């Protein structure tokens, strides 16, 4: 429900704000568009821009998702050239129908579902020509928003970044399920199934049919079958994005296994096809969107609504690319040629994976590079950290996205050795994020890198960090919030120091409460198993950790709430003369008498015409001292708010996870405070035990101003000692 509210409310508020800004601009006769901010740069296109600006002749572009030959040049397939020759001058340039080129659509679905597929023979598939894969996905999102109102789309983490943009702009609630396991550089199948098993019936699940982008990690055939059964049992709608059929393994049938398994199992599903990669038709924007329905009657209704969505978007699809694909797929000889060329492209990429891994291992890298050849398709998820990617770019002119994804199409026999050397140089650094899937060495003694290399031990390194918050380079606010993120640890440390220095009974309980809050958050996280924000967890390296609730927020809320309750309790104690113990009362009375004397002296000085400047300053300092406890409480709440906001701003938690942490910490603090009062009131005599008396433990909970009482007692003691010495 929270996701639905956020998806619906945020765009509405943004639209209202933009409308207000536009009306204000018109009223003041300024530019109508002065309120429009610059959109953030696309991370992939930004890589290409930097690559083009680099003058290094040995620069390497591993960011763009387009095929290149072994010379690094774009490729037009021979089968496509032949199709172009046949199409040129043989067709009119008239509009296509809204649903596009019908023969092209029929050829496309046969390629995906299989020529003998029952869903095609029974005419269960509604189909429409789309603007490549992006257009298919956008139409799927719009269809879900229109005809599955209130439903949620479950998107893998990580995924192609545009998936999130597409469903967000269609105002469909988004949840992200775990997919990739950084520790093994493979599929996190168990967590994925566990997460999806809790999805409400009627939700949709986005799946990459093959060659998952960006990880290159696909389920096995058995896992696809298990996943199909899970989605069917839970009444979840599969939406398969098929952008790399044939391009992943070199075999179109093998790459379509997920689609065919789901169709055979009787799923009603959506399929988004693209011919940009497997035919090299990047600029033609040709794709096919299809929906598997119950029967021919349902197909007719669904297809009419598919066209109704396309009409206001772009009216009609382009004709040229559809003619090229139809010409190739409809001609047996031309199709055979194309299948051979697709296999050649896939095999070149597979060979580059093997060559890159061999080069890295030949350089003596102690790390495991199995994932390079285990992954499939155009992209490889290297596991390089953003900092190491920056070093590859700055020192070697090697360009890739900061999540460590490289396009294997950009690797060739001329640059693979240089690429391996650069990766080897920086992957050996301590900040490398690998936690290897190799078995640990049996030796458990002191470890050195040299000893490991000499003994051949293949160890995975794991860091232990008490407080390590990452922020985007250049984000000044993020840097401040990263510093604030250390506050929960200092709160626990501060409580421990006060416990040692002050020996106060209630501080024992406060310290125990802070530890209990942290432990309870850990337990709740393991029970709920809610993942961290998918958009940032891979970059932060915490996808394997759970996020509900936020421990930072809970600990700070506990500390701030306890401080407020302590302040209010002592305020009440100051109005009750019998609330404090005898020593505290004596100190407070002495401090009060001293304040009264100072005020009388100030009044006398004023009556004699004295300027009283010093007394005014003293009075101001006194008032500040009296207000200091409240200021400390307010400062702690401000710091709590900063920590809570920082967990969302830095990408460590969702707003709901932070809110849950704040609620848990505050509630636990209130309950724990009742226990603290009961312990201090009923168990006060325990302080008379010899051990606690020897350690000088005391109960100061009822003392309104401990510092004032102690200071006055020390002054009185010093005065008494001085009088005796005289």
UniProtKB/TrEMBL annotation:
Residues 58-423 form the Aminotransferase class I/classII large domain. Its EC number is 2.6.1.1. Residues 509-675 form the Phosphatidic acid phosphatase type 2/haloperoxidase domain. It catalyses: L-aspartate + 2-oxoglutarate = oxaloacetate + L-glutamate. SUPFAM superfamilies: Acid phosphatase/Vanadium-dependent haloperoxidase, PLP-dependent transferases. Keywords: Aminotransferase, Membrane, Pyridoxal phosphate, Transferase, Transmembrane, Transmembrane helix. CDD domains: AAT_like. It is an enzyme of class 2 (transferase). GO terms for biological process: amino acid metabolic process. GO terms for cellular component: mitochondrion. Belongs to the class-I pyridoxal-phosphate-dependent aminotransferase family. This is Aspartate aminotransferase.
């Amino acid at each position: 429900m929270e996701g639905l509210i956020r998806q619906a409310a945020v765009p509405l508020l943004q639209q209202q704000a933009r409308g207000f800004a536009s009306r204000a601009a018109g009223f003041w006769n300024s530019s109508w568009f002065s309120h429009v901010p610059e959109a953030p740069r696309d991370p992939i296109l930004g890589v290409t821009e930097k690559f083009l600006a680099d003058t290094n002749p040995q620069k390497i572009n591993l960011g763009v998702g387009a095929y290149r030959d072994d010379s690094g040049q774009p490729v037009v397939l021979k089968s496509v050239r032949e199709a172009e020759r046949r199409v040129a001058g043989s067709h009119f340039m008239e509009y296509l129908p809204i649903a596009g080129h019908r023969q092209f659509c029929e050829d496309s679905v046969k390629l995906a579902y299989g020529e003998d597929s029952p869903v095609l023979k029974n005419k269960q598939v509604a189909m429409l020509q789309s603007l490549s894969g992006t257009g298919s996905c956008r139409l799927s999102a719009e269809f879900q928003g229109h005809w599955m109102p209130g439903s949620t789309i479950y998107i893998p983490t990580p995924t192609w970044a545009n998936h999130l943009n597409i469903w967000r702009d269609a105002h469909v609630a988004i949840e992200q399920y775990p997919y990739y396991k950084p520790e093994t550089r493979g599929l996190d199948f168990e967590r994925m199934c566990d997460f999806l098993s809790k999805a409400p019936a009627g939700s949709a699940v986005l799946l990459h049919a093959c060659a998952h982008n960006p990880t290159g990690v696909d389920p096995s055939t058995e896992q696809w079958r298990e996943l199909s059964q899970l989605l069917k049992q839970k009444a979840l709608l599969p939406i398969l994005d098929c952008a790399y059929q044939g391009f992943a393994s070199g075999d179109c049938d093998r790459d379509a296994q997920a689609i065919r398994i789901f169709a055979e199992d009787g799923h009603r599903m959506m399929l988004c096809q693209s011919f940009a990669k497997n035919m090299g038709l990047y600029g033609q924007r040709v794709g096919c969107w299809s929906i598997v329905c119950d029967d021919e009657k349902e197909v007719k209704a669904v297809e009419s609504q598919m066209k109704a969505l396309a009409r206001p978007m772009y009216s009609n699809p382009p004709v040229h690319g559809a003619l090229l694909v139809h010409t190739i797929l409809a001609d047996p000889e031309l199709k055979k040629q194309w299948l051979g060329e697709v296999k050649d492209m896939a095999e070149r990429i597979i060979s580059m994976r093997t060559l890159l891994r061999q080069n890295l291992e030949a350089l003596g890298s102690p790390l495991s590079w199995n994932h390079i050849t285990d992954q499939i398709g155009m992209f490889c998820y290297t596991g390089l950290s953003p900092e190491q990617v920056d070093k590859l770019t700055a020192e070697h002119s090697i360009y890739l996205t900061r999540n460590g994804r490289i396009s294997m199409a950009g690797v060739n026999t001329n640059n693979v050795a240089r690429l391996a050397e650069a990766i080897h140089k920086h992957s050996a650094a301590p900040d490398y994020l690998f936690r290897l899937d190799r078995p640990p060495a049996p030796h458990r003694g002191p470890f050195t890198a040299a000893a490991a290399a000499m003994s051949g031990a293949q160890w995975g390194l794991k860091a232990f960090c008490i407080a390590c918050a990452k922020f985007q380079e250049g984000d000044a606010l993020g840097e401040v919030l990263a510093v604030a993120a250390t506050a929960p640890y200092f709160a626990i440390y501060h409580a421990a120091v006060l416990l040692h220095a002050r020996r106060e009974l209630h501080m024992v309980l406060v310290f125990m409460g802070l530890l209990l809050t942290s432990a309870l958050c850990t337990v709740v996280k393991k029970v709920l198993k809610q993942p961290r924000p998918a958009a940032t967890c891979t970059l932060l390296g915490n996808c394997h950790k759970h996020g509900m609730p936020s421990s930072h927020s809970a600990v700070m809320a506990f500390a701030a709430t306890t401080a407020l309750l302590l302040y209010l309790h002592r305020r009440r104690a100051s109005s009750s003369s019998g609330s404090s113990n005898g020593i505290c009362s004596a100190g407070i009375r002495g401090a009060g008498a001293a304040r009264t004397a100072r005020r009388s002296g100030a009044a006398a000085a004023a009556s004699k015409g004295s300027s009283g400047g010093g007394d005014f300053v003293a009075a101001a300092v006194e008032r500040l001292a009296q207000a200091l406890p409240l200021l400390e409480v307010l400062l702690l709440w401000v710091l709590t708010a900063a920590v809570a906001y920082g967990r969302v701003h830095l990408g460590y938690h969702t707003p709901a996870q932070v809110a849950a942490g704040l609620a848990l910490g505050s509630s636990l603090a209130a309950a724990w405070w009742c226990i603290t009062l009961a312990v201090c009131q009923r168990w006060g005599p325990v302080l008379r035990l010899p051990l606690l008396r020897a350690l000088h433990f005391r109960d100061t909970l009822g003392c309104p101003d401990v510092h004032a009482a102690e200071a006055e007692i020390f002054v009185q003691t010093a005065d008494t000692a001085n009088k005796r010495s005289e």
